[in-house]
Design brief:
single chain; alpha+beta; Ribosomal Protein L30, Chain: A; three-stranded antiparallel β-sheet; 2 helices; about 25% strand; globular
Length: about 60
Amino acid sequence: MSDKKMMKVTLVRRVYGRLEKHRACVRGLGLRRLNQTVVVEDTPMTRGMANKVAYMVKVEES
């Protein structure tokens, strides 16, 4: 098994009417639809994107 740390990110608020940079962060995480969950590698880059849009996403360590 891989020893990379992963995190589950779920989109819990709509992206409509949000700042363009925040919408880009959501797309960069691979999220497209409300309540969609993706598993991404826990790197400083993905962690920063998730922190920037923390009011729109739910993050779970895995």
